[in-house]
Batch of 4 targets.
Target 1
Amino acid sequence: MENCFAWSDEGKDGSSSSSLKGPFNYIPPSPWQSAKPSSSSSEGRDSTALRIHSEAEKRRRERINVHLSTLRRMVPNSAKMDKASLLGTVIDHLKDLKRKAVGIDCSIEIPAEFNEVKVELVDVGNQHEFLPAACDDKLYIKASVCCDDRADLFQNLIKAFNRLRLTTIRADMMSLGGRVQNVFVLCLKDFDTSSSVSLSCLKRSIRDMLDSVISCSEVPTSNVFSSKKRKSKNILHCV
């Protein structure tokens, strides 16, 4: 037989070491049993992960620097500020803007659906941002007008104030759906504030003057599609 081997002669008398020779099959080791982890491949994976992490960190820092540069352009005198001071200044500025926005929302009056004129005195004792520091010999009046919006309304209101020698200190306007709300702060110099009769007469005069101005915008529903000539005559008559 091809794979059969005989006993050696030296082993017959027992004087010499004997070796057994017989049939056997050779089984090679498995690849996963003989293969050992390569140190070079492990180092390559580590270097790749480190490079990816470094590039991601670089991009993150670049984005942060771009945002900081934008904030520096928005905040004055911030060229030499560090990051913490810059962010603190921006946060304070945003809080101030939010506080002002809330104040504006509370002060805005939506125009009513009906015409309305309000005239009231401004209390000089309270601190108003639109009043000057020295206002002892001046009278301040707040006039509110709500009516239909039209092109010549504001101009006619200013002319009415000038006829009464009133100076406009502040004017706020809110328009919605063809209606407009105008709020004026007016000033009258050299006025005797101790006379209650004069105050009542002045308020009545202002109210009557404003009523005559806004009456020009009142158009009956049946005459909405009237001719332009008739509208112009009504406006001239009211003015």
Target 2
Amino acid sequence: MRKSKRITTAIGIVLVVVLVFSFILLKAPLYYQVRSYAVMFAYSTFEKKFSLLDENSMVMKIPGGSSTPEKDWFPFVMTFNDDKGFSDFMGRDLSLTILYNFGGFSWSSSSSAFFDKNSPYFNSFYGGYVVRDNESNKIYGFTEQGEPDVEETFAIPQYDYKYLVLQSLGCPASKLKMEVLSMEIAENIRYAGYDDWVRIDSLMLVNSPEHKFKGNRRAYIQYGNPLLKEKDEEFKLMTTYGRIYARYFPEFQSTVYLYIMSPDLNTVNQCDHAILSKSVIAPK
């Protein structure tokens, strides 16, 4: 009887300790980081099964933040598909798979660097797009003469940033902005193990992601909580740099883009050299 009581008491103590530590964890900055890792890993794994990569028997491995010694980017690159949304946006039947990464978490903050305006990874993304035109023999992002179609090329990051990122944060439709201010195009670039890439460097006017915390938006699961103070302007305009590499892969009947976006040009160059250029694109 005494032994049974001791066991019951011990179990009770363990449960109390677990509950206390669970409560502490829920209130600690670490919780937001762990939640983001767990949810985004599971969701991204699910999305991969329905991606153009899987459909094309294609490998597209872009290194994540865990590939660098610095605490810079989210540990792994995520996958998202939006065939219908992008088709509606462009007015024709297209398939779109998005691979993306953003500024990572620190151990002491409930927010990722994506929201931290003092971080070199503030409002910064890198990753890839795989696009296929399902309606015609047209190669997406290129003219019939093989020249880069700048309008189609920039339509992808515009759709991605304005309607998948900013709107998920609550930016009003009337404020959404992504305007190319200047660009420089270079052709016949060797990159990621292949010749004949086109590189476009640009300066853009976009909305900042800064805004006040509003309820439990699903976007907070991946980015953490926003940091804007009550008195500051939400989604104000800012300039940012973009770099995008474009190449059509006939073996996959798809156009592949590798991209970086950051208001810090040094971040763009470092990411290009240390991460994005090490991407692997190959058949399975």
Target 3
Amino acid sequence: MREQELLRRIAAHVGAEYAGVWRRDVALPDLDHRTVDEALASGVPAQQVWRAVWSFLELPDRER
């Protein structure tokens, strides 16, 4: 997964207006309590970040 796809998916699920704030401020347990932006900046692959987002938001399996 490319980073742009990850960002698009996050915006689709939390809302485009809120997505930037959400990525910057919400610490995800599956990312060692880092935010999406912190995880990406430290080199975590976008697919791994998406799995953490998917789990945190309790999205349906079809969104995985």
Target 4
Amino acid sequence: MTNLAFDVYGTLIDAQSVVSTLSSYLGTDKAESFSSRWRDKQLEYSFRRGLMRQYQDFAVCTKEALEFTNNEYGSPLNEEQKENLLDTYTRLPAFDDARAALSKLSLSGMGCFAFSNGSQEAVSGLLEKAELSSYFNDVISCKDIKSFKPDPEVYQHFLDKTGGQAESTWLISSNSFDIIGANAAGWKTAWVKRTKEAQFDPWGIEPTITVSSLSQLIENIK
């Protein structure tokens, strides 16, 4: 059986929607760069904690990354604004193509799983609010083994939880580090290139397929 492992943040869920909240606090000019820096730092903290084996929940990485970014920008956000931003992160919207694509894929006979650095509770709540939860067989969280993507152990954990085989498992993600990690674990991969500006890491490793929309998956995954 073919199983599909969907990354959540940035693939199904539009994490950039925090920009609108940031704009009301910082103005449009600073909001985009602040959001991008926050996201980059969030991932950096997860990578570093994974390498150091000093695990903290992904929500902690998110909060610490926000604190760092705010300090770097001269502390323009007060405590209430920071809490509002963290709350926004728990109710982010789905990308426009997510529901229709997941509806078709979930009826195709393939297993559909959410696969995330976030805790099962946080991801399940996020998917519920975004009206996506009904399309998934389960939510597989890296928190179960206290590590983060792209640690090889998290991809094995997914296989252990689903009973699937690497060669019949697909990772669907907009994050090239995740695609490369799954490729190294022997999975098939679909890189969701959501913007023309998105770049894939030049490591000499290519995704199995590249799509610009989740709607293209049904015709390309066998």
